[in-house]
Amino acid sequence: MNNSRLFRLSRIVIALTAASGMMVNTANAKEEAKAATQYTQQVNQNYAKSLPFSDRQDFDDAQRGFIAPLLDEGILRDANGKPYYRGEDYKFDINAPAPETVNPSLWRQSQLNGISGLFKVTDRMY
Asked: Does residue 6 come out as left (phi exceeding 0), alpha (psi in the -120 to 50 range) or beta?
């Protein structure tokens, strides 16, 4: 296969992949959020009781060495200045309880993952 044919084939594969991703996102955007079933609520409540969620050490550890927030509020932009990633879209209130539809442990992990910025890990390592 010559390079120009391989290049055209690569472009087609990329276009089809991007188009299929857009179709999935469009389909998901039309669905309304559903309430948790009684079973899900009960499982999540029992799970929450089984773990030490009052222990906030993980949050203290995640914020240790914090120096400054991300530039431009964590917004990444393309060459034309259009935002393609907003860190704020993935932040969770670290004091908010998990919704009934979400496993409490996963909610807590998402809260921890939302802590971002510039951190000093050790001397000369940021």
From this structure: alpha
Domain span at residue 74 reads 36-119
- Do 58 and 112 touch, CB atoms closer than 8 A? yes
Question: β-strand 75-77 against 66-68: which pairing, if any?
Answer: unpaired
Mean pLDDT, 10 residues at a time, over the chain (126 residues)?
59 58 55 90 94 92 94 91 88 84 92 90 93
Name the domain count of the chain.
2
Q: Which residues pair with 98 in a beta bridge?
A: none
- Neighbour-count burial of 103, counting CB atoms closer than 10 A to its CB (0-12 exposed, 13-18 middle, 19+ buried): middle
Residues, the chain: 126
The reply to whether 126 falls in a domain is no
